[in-house]
Amino acid sequence: MDATTNALAGVVNLIAVSIALLIINPLLLMAMIVASLPKGYAALRSGHLRYATYVAGSVRRRRMFTLERQMADRQSAPELRSYGLRGFLLAQYDMVMRAQAAVELRLARQVAATTALGGVISGVGLALVWILLGWLLATDQIPLAAAVTCVVAVQTAQLALANLTFQLDYIYTSGQYVREYLTFLERAEEYLPAPVAPDTAAPGPLQTLEVRHVGLQYPERPSPAVREVSFTITAGQTVALVGENGSGKSTLAAMIAGLRAPTSGEMLWNGKSYDAWDRAALTARVCVVLQEHHKWPYSAAANIAMGSIDATPDQSRIEQAAQRALAHQMIVDLPHGYRTLLDRTFKEGQDLSGGQWQRITAARGFYRDADLLIMDEPSSALDPRAEDALFQDLRARKGRRTTILITHRLANVVHADRIYVMHDGIVAEAGTHAELLTLGGRYAELFTLQAAGYTSPQWD
C-alpha cells in the first residue's frame, strides 16, 4: 500500500511535468518519454529476473537450511562425531552453496547488463532533451525564462521517474510473491475438510465404530496404503492391529482417529459418518499416543495436562496419569519435580531419554481418558518393567474403554478381543490370538518367530 501511494504521487508529478513540457514545446515531451521508458523497462525486467531466480532456487535454499541444521543440531551431533561426518556435510554444503552462488552471480550479471543498457538508452534520450532544449533556445523558439523552466521540469521529471520506477519495481516484484502465496492458499483449500453445518450434533459416548470399505491413496504413490478394509469395533473392546512394516497399520489408525480422511469408503461413529458429527467434539472423544511423539518444551505437568487442553489442569489427575504410565517416580526425581522444564534450550531445563519421553506421552493419553484410545507402538522405547506395567493398565481398560493397539510385540496383544493382521494395505487375517494360531497363517508365523527368540538359544 505504501508503494502504491508513492507510485501514485510519482504519476501525479510526471503528469504535471509533462503538461509543463507540452505547453513549452511538444518535442521536449516526446524526447523526455524516450529518455524515460528504457530505464523503467529495465527496472521491471530486473525485478522479473530476481523473482524467477528466487523461485527456481527454492530447492537449493531448503537443502542448505537442512544441511545447516544437520551440522548444528544436538540430535545429529552424536552420529556426526562417531561417523566422522564433518567433512562429508561440509562438502555437501559447499557443493550446494557453489551452485547457488553461480546462479546469483549469473543473476547479478543479467541485472547489471539490463540496468546498464536501460541507463545508456535513457542517457542518450536525456542528452537529446538537452540538445533539443539548447537548439530551441539558440533559435529563439523559446525565451530564456521558458528554458530555465524546462531545466527545472526535466530535473523534477528525473526525480519523479526514479521514484516511480523504484515503486513500480517493488509493486511488481512483491505482487509476484503475493500471487504465489494466493495460489498456494487455493491449492491448500482443496485439502481442507468439508464445512460442517453450525447445528451439527456432537457425538455421544462410543457404542460402535465401523470401518466400511476404507481405503487411502497417498499422492504420487503407485498403490494405495490401505484398501477395502472393513470391520466393526464395539465399546469396551481391545483391538490390535499387527503386521510387518509398511502394511498400513498406522495409516488405518490415523483414519480411525480422524487425522486423515479416507479416499474411499467411510468411517462411522455410532452408525453415522464422521463427517456428520461435529469434528471438534468427535476429536475430543479420541486420544492418540504416537510412537513418533513430539517433545513439547514445557514442564512435565504441562506435557501431561496437554492431553486434555480444554480442561483446568488437575495436579492429582496429572499424578494419577503419570503413575499409570510408570512415570511418576521419574518425574519426582527431576530437579523441580512436575514443574521441571523438559527442554535443554532454556535455563535449568532437563532432557529425557527416549523411554522416559514415551512414559510422558503415555501419561498424556491416560490423562485424557477418552472413549477411544489409539496407541501406536507405545512401548518401543520402554524397559521390560515399564512395558509390563503399561500393558497391565491397558488390559484394565478392557470392558470400560475402547483401545486400539498397534505393536510389533505380539506377546502384548494375546489378550485382545480381536486381532487384525494387516498386509499390503488389507486385512489378511482376523480373529482372537487362539483362533489365529490355529489358522496357522501369517500371524502364527510371526508369533512363532518372536516366541522362538525367547525359548531357544540364538548364539553359539
Task: Please tell me about this protein's structure.
The protein is α/β, with parallel strands linked by helices and 460 residues long. Helix 2 runs antiparallel to helix 5 (86-138), helix 5 runs antiparallel to helix 6 and helix 14 packs across helix 15 (442-455). The relative contact order is 0.09. The N and C termini lie far apart (78 Å). The strands form 2 sheets. A 6-stranded mixed beta sheet has the order 6-7-8-3-9-10, with helices on both faces. It has a 4-stranded antiparallel beta sheet with strand order 2-1-4-5, covered by helices on one side. Helix 13 (384-396) links the parallel strand 7 (372-376) and strand 8 (402-406). 56% of the residues lie in helices and 13% in strands. The radius of gyration is 35 Å and the shape is elongated.
Q: Strand portion, in percent?
A: 5-15%
For the record, give the distance between the C-alpha atoms at the N and C termini, rounded to a whole number: 78 Å
- Gross geometry: elongated
Uncertain stretches of 5 or more adjacent residues: none
Structural class: alpha/beta
Q: What is the CA-atom radius of gyration, in angstroms?
A: 35 Å
Strand order of the largest sheet: 6-7-8-3-9-10
Give the proportion of residues in helices.
55-70%
Main sheet characteristics: 6 strands, mixed
> Order of SSEs, N→C?
HHHHHHEEEHEEHEHHHHEHEEEHH
Mean pLDDT: 85
* Number of distinct beta strands: 10
**How many alpha or pi helices?**
15
